[in-house]
Amino acid sequence: MGCSAGVISVDLAKDLLQVHRKTYAIVVSTENITYGAYSGHNKSMMLSNCLFRVGGAAMLLSNKSKDKRVAKYKLVHVVRTHRGSDDKAYNCVYQGQDETGKIGVSLSKDLM
């Protein structure tokens, strides 16, 4: 699912904590793009080598009242959007081949 899976997971954990009282939810998110490292010369495909790497994050979410005293952050609001029906948005990050046949991830200006 890529980097968007972290946001989806936090939203799911938030929903679960609203249903199950006095409990914890842990979200662990990792991404490894080593397989998709691009070695060609197409600039739109080289950019992903600079922006994306190997990384991970984890967070423990709680709805227990006693944890308010020790919590560093408070989850206030989660917003998720899906623009997959728009072809420009759908193809803004696209894995394909360059003119020499090397596989890479192409980023377009329609990303934002």
Automatic annotation (TrEMBL):
<dbReference type="InterPro" id="IPR012392">
    <property type="entry name" value="3-ktacl-CoA_syn"/>
</dbReference>
<dbReference type="GO" id="GO:0016747">
    <property type="term" value="F:acyltransferase activity, transferring groups other than amino-acyl groups"/>
</dbReference>
<feature type="domain" description="FAE">
    <location>
        <begin position="1"/>
        <end position="112"/>
    </location>
</feature>
<protein>
    <recommendedName>
        <fullName>FAE domain-containing protein</fullName>
    </recommendedName>
</protein>
<dbReference type="InterPro" id="IPR016039">
    <property type="entry name" value="Thiolase-like"/>
</dbReference>
<dbReference type="InterPro" id="IPR013601">
    <property type="entry name" value="FAE1_typ3_polyketide_synth"/>
</dbReference>
<dbReference type="GO" id="GO:0006633">
    <property type="term" value="P:fatty acid biosynthetic process"/>
</dbReference>
<dbReference type="GO" id="GO:0016020">
    <property type="term" value="C:membrane"/>
</dbReference>
<keyword id="KW-0808">Transferase</keyword>
<keyword id="KW-0012">Acyltransferase</keyword>
<dbReference type="Pfam" id="PF08392">
    <property type="entry name" value="FAE1_CUT1_RppA"/>
</dbReference>
